[in-house]
Design goal:
The complex is a heterodimer. By secondary structure, chain A is mainly alpha-helical. Helix content of chain A is 72%, strand content 1%. Chain A is built from 8 helices and 1 strand; from the N terminus they run H-E-H-H-H-H-H-H-H. Chain B contains 2 helices and 1 strand, in the order βαα. The chains are: A mainly alpha, B mainly alpha. At the A-B interface, strand 1, helix 2, helix 3, helix 4 and helix 6 of A face strand 1 and helix 1 of B.
Chain lengths: 279, 157
């Protein structure tokens, strides 16, 4: 990380610098898992966008009228109805939907906003932060969903909701019984295999849930950095390449941003819906 | 790509956001949506009802018109019949009155003729007596010939 002061960063250094979090230690985390470290940038942007999400939704909710809706209210209502319809189709308990549907709405809106941070120029916020902090080499990553902590945090939240509904719907005994007898059947010899399968299922669901969103956003961010590197060469070819590729990728990324938010929301509903069904 | 305490913080934030949405965002919006859906359903039902009411009223109007026309025909027929009866009665009454009047006139004329005859007879008798008196003044005593004159008068009656 100690680039020489004299020369501009190489392509590799530029990428690595942009992929390093602003964390509580001040330098890149070396251990794969270190519970004493906080990624301050992820926390700042995810909490900030969470507050924005709530402000937008609460503003709409406080002015919601059953009369003729304004454009803002109609836009939010389209989202709410979309989420409510999906929830109705997947989670068959009206009581559970009172919590599950709002969770899905929050997840969709919040992730959509966090993913949208990708549309800002890759160097804009890091440069501003470097000016504010006075450290030319300050780290900052602006997309909270391109941080595995952010996405796994949410997918583990979904896992906890799933466990809660497993116990609530089937009873603790019923759920434990299911853990040992499904999917292969009730036979003492099959108990360990069933249990192993169930554990793998929960683990795979949660990890893939978080990893899918993380992978997409991380890759998207990386591509934006590579495109920015083209412009960074300050040649005619590099400039044209930056403009053309940057435009195409940004337009395509709109689809990814919305799609990944939608997929995360749908999987949240599907996993919670599965917790309601007995094998 | 490393895991750290951020994950736990994100987990907590996730639940806080979800809880706030459940508490303050979802219910009012869904309530507004449901109320609007109900309003629209009510409006459509009212429109349907108005339409069926209109059809009903039109049917009733046609029925009433038919009834009115029928009763008008009845009234006219009855009036014509009554007029005919009245005309017949009037005619009969008129004939009766004419006949009565004729009878009365004839009776009166008979009486008058009788009276005239009698008056005429008296006058003729007096004239005869006066003539005879003039002729017989000198030779006939009125008292002596009274019986004769009375007989004559009787005959003339």
């Amino acid at each position: 990380m100690s680039t020489g002061e004299a020369h501009a960063p190489t392509a590799g250094e530029y990428i690595v610098h942009h992929l390093t979090h602003l964390n509580s230690t001040g330098h890149a985390q070396s251990a794969i898992i270190d519970w004493s470290v906080w990624n301050l940038d992820t926390l700042f942007f995810s909490i900030g966008l969470g507050i924005v999400t709530l402000l937008i939704l609460i503003k709409c909710a406080s002015k919601a009228t059953s009369g003729v809706p304004g454009r803002f209210q109609a836009a939010i209502e389209i989202l709410v109805e979309m989420v409510a319809d999906q929830a109705k189709g997947i989670v068959h308990s009206a009581e559970s939907r009172k919590f599950v549907a709002p969770v899905a709405l929050t997840v969709f809106f919040w992730i959509f906003l966090m993913n949208s941070m990708d549309f800002l120029p890759v160097d804009l916020l890091p440069k501003i932060w470097a000016l504010i902090s006075g450290d030319e080499h300050a780290y900052l990553r602006v997309v909270p969903t391109a941080d595995l902590n952010g996405t796994l945090g949410m997918s583990i939240g979904v896992l906890l909701i799933c466990l809660y509904y497993n116990v609530k719907i089937k009873g603790f005994g019923g759920w434990v019984h299911e853990l040992f007898t499904a999917p292969f059947g009730s036979h003492p010899l099959l108990y360990p295999i069933n249990f192993l399968m169930q554990m793998i299922e929960f683990l795979a669901k949660t990890v893939s849930h978080g990893m899918r969103l993380f992978g997409n956003m991380y890759a998207g961010e990386l591509v934006f950095m590579l495109i920015a590197l083209m412009g960074g060469t300050a040649t005619v070819f590099g400039f044209l390449g930056h403009v053309v590729a940057g435009s195409i990728w940004a337009v395509f990324h709109i689809l990814i941003v919305a799609l990944q938010a939608f997929i995360f929301m749908m999987l949240t509903l599907v996993y919670i819906g599965q917790a309601h069904e007995s094998h | 790509m490393n895991l750290n305490a951020t994950l736990v913080a994100q987990l907590v934030v996730f639940f806080i956001l979800a809880w706030v949405t459940m508490k303050f965002v979802w219910p009012p919006i869904v309530k507004a949506l449901d109320e609007r859906a109900k309003k629209i359903a009510d409006g459509l039902a009212a429109a349907d009802k108005a339409k069926s009411d209109l059809a009903h009223a039109e049917k009733k109007v046609v029925e009433e018109m038919r009834k009115a026309r029928e009763s008008a025909t009845d009234v006219r027929a009855a009036a014509e019949k009554q007029a005919a009866v009245f005309l017949d009665e009037s005619r009969a009454e008129a004939a009766r009155i004419i006949a009565q009047a004729r009878e009365a006139a004839e009776a009166e004329a008979g009486v008058a003729a009788q009276r005239a005859k009698e008056a005429l007879r008296d006058q003729v008798a007096q004239l005869a007596v006066a003539g005879a008196e003039k002729i017989l003044r000198k030779e006939i005593n009125a008292q002596a010939h009274a019986d004769l004159l009375a007989n004559l008068k009787q005959e003339l009656q």
